[in-house]
């Protein structure tokens, strides 16, 4: 199982709930689509049992501090390409809708993971686009993550 999250924005209780959720389920990989915000959040993500992949978000201003704090957890970059069980994933925070659209339409990826809007969205036919909403709950009032089955890309929304 793949856990997808985004926009945790320093909400430590919400991050803790997400980590506990992923640890309690059959999750092998967690993807964070940006806006971790502060280096101190790494203290919570160190409790994550699955492997973690993360990209920077537009509010991740202290990049060097984040890279250092997360160095034992994952390497944070602006964009990632990964393969999971034969599926090709692109991961970007998604501040530029034209880039998100181009990645979705280029035909190179099976799944596009994005964040930024704080709005839960799962759509697409050629390329599955997943925005897990927000872990922090600050904008929508909902704290959500998404589980993806790597066998068939079926998605399940989890309310934290």
Automatic annotation (TrEMBL):
InterPro entries: Calcineurin-like_PHP_lpxH, Metallo-depent_PP-like, MetalloPDE_YfcE-like, MPP_YfcE, Phosphodiesterase_MJ0936/Vps29. Residues 2-151 form the Calcineurin-like phosphoesterase domain. Its EC number is 3.1.4.-. Its cofactor is a divalent metal cation. The keyword 4Fe-4S does not apply. It holds the Pfam family Metallophos_2. Keywords: Metal-binding. The keyword Acetylation does not apply. PANTHER family: METALLOPHOSPHOESTERASE (PTHR43165), PHOSPHODIESTERASE MJ0936 (PTHR43165:SF1). Belongs to the metallophosphoesterase superfamily. YfcE family. This is Phosphoesterase. The lineage of its organism: Archaea, Methanobacteriati, Methanobacteriota, Methanomada group, Methanobacteria.
């Amino acid at each position: 199982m793949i856990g997808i999250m985004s926009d945790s924005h320093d909400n430590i209780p919400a991050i803790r709930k997400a980590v506990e959720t992923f640890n309690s389920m059959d999750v092998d990989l967690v993807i964070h689509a940006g806006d971790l915000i502060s280096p101190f959040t790494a203290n919570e993500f160190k409790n994550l049992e699955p492997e973690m992949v993360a990209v920077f978000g537009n509010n991740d201003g202290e990049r060097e501090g984040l890279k250092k704090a997360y160095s034992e957890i994952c390497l944070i970059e602006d964009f990632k390409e990964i393969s999971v069980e034969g599926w090709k994933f692109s991961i970007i925070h998604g501040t530029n809708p034209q880039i998100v659209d181009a990645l979705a339409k280029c035909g190179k990826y099976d799944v596009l993971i994005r964040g930024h809007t704080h709005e839960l969205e799962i759509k697409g036919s050629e390329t599955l686009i997943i925005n897990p909403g927000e872990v922090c709950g600050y904008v929508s009032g909902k704290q959500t993550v998404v589980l993806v089955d790597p066998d068939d890309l079926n998605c399940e929304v989890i309310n934290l």
